[in-house]
Amino acid sequence: MEERESLPPPPPPNLEDSGNKNHIKTLQLPDKPGTYVVQVPKDQVYRVPPPQNSSIAESRIKAPPRDAKTSRCSWYCVLFSIIFFALLILLGAVFGGLFSLLLSPTDPEFSIVKFKLVERKPNPKYDVTFHVHNSNSKVGILYKDSGSVSLSLKQRNIASGTYPTLYQDPHVTTSFNVTLEASKPGLPKVVEQSVKNEKEKVSVAFSLSIHFHARMKMGLLRSRKMKFDVTCNVKMDSLAKTTRILSQQCQTKRH
């Protein structure tokens, strides 16, 4: 193990010219070989940065600066998309209105083919079969959004159901069934009397209300969505095993 020798104090500086203000200090080391320890003041020791700082700095230098033109272009694209979709909606509404005005399609015509009480307990259920006729020769009807059907007796709602979603070709009559279920158990008094009296038939008058949305369609053209309300007044001779429709009247209104 090598011995360490302390550094001897430096000799006093030799001033070549006492009148010169710039003094040169010369540190003379001893000629004897060995290992020496140099002590540096603490305020002159500088912290070495970690190596990852250099990679972060290089990545920031290599990263392309954000272009103001690119940001401006993105805003223009968003604005153009909003205007484009707004024009599409406006054109759709205009063409839908022109379609309805120029072609003047007629409303669908409804009629009741069968009306029957299919279940009495726990909650009564009524099965109704409708015919809907599309009298337009070139315009189809698209029934959508699952409308509603309600059954009333003496202006009191006693059952309800869902109107089906379907498409009807021009000049076609379509048949469909709707099951109406009562919200409360038990039959109305007049309905119960009509069910029990098979020999002496007790007639019952009902009112059916249908609410649905539909679009008229011809090729690629479609009308705006229209709301329809249908009211059917029907009178049954009996609700026993054998039933027969005595009279009916249906009216369709477009909104």
UniProtKB/TrEMBL annotation:
<keyword id="KW-1133">Transmembrane helix</keyword>
<feature type="region of interest" description="Disordered">
    <location>
        <begin position="1"/>
        <end position="32"/>
    </location>
</feature>
<dbReference type="GO" id="GO:0016020">
    <property type="term" value="C:membrane"/>
</dbReference>
<dbReference type="InterPro" id="IPR044839">
    <property type="entry name" value="NDR1-like"/>
</dbReference>
<keyword id="KW-0812">Transmembrane</keyword>
<feature type="transmembrane region" description="Helical">
    <location>
        <begin position="75"/>
        <end position="103"/>
    </location>
</feature>
<protein>
    <recommendedName>
        <fullName>Late embryogenesis abundant protein LEA-2 subgroup domain-containing protein</fullName>
    </recommendedName>
</protein>
<keyword id="KW-0472">Membrane</keyword>
